[in-house]
Design goal:
The chain is mainly alpha-helical. It has 9 helices and 2 strands. The chain has helices at residues 10-17, 23-32, 42-58, 62-78, 89-103, 107-120, 125-138, 144-171, 176-224, and strands at residues 83-84, 87-88. Strands 1-2 form a two-stranded antiparallel ribbon. Strand 1 and strand 2 form a beta hairpin. The chain is elongated. The protein starts with 9 loop residues before the first helix and ends with a helix. 24% of the residues are buried.
Amino acid sequence: MRPFPSRHSETYEAFLAIEAGAYKERIQYIEENFFKLRELEAGEYFDMMVLYGEALFETGEYARQAKLADHILEMSIERNIIMHRQQDVYFETLFKKATSLHNLERMDEAVHILKELIKINPDHETTKLFLINCLVRQKKLAVRPYRNISLMLLLTSAVVIGLELLLVRRFWPSWAMIFEMIRNGLFIGGVILLIAGEVMVRYRAVEDVYSFSRQTKRKKEHHKV
């Protein structure tokens, strides 16, 4: 990226004068001065877009941040900008976009981006943990049958308890022990199925992510040889 000119434009100076944490004010300034942005020097424009993206992200404007992220990524590639404000701008922008997509329930897109980030840096633990979280949410459909069966067992257990208290203990006390065993079995079975489904999904997500990370790391090391 070309160095900033010795003197910044008034538009850029006014933007930087806004307090760092005043995200809504930064967004408002960008939108009110949108047509002036095309007159900015390339470095000033890029810096303002990065800070604008940060402001959108911090204020929960996830759809707009995800869209702007593509523009920032294009500029960083075209101008060969790697580090910006002491951060890997390409990696950080992609990570924020993945987070925005996750918050928008666009899980498939978020998973795709996070896998690309792991290809860039297989040792980035935060990315791996975030990918695990996304995969767990993505795989929730896989455990729905377990949850449905578990719910049926628990509801049936509740019905059996009602029958036991209202009828069996009054009129057929000799059957009380059998009903107690049945409802305990139904309840325990329901709980076990519910827990097993959750554990299975999380185990698969962790195994998938770390297996993918190991494979990616081996490929990168192979290419270096």
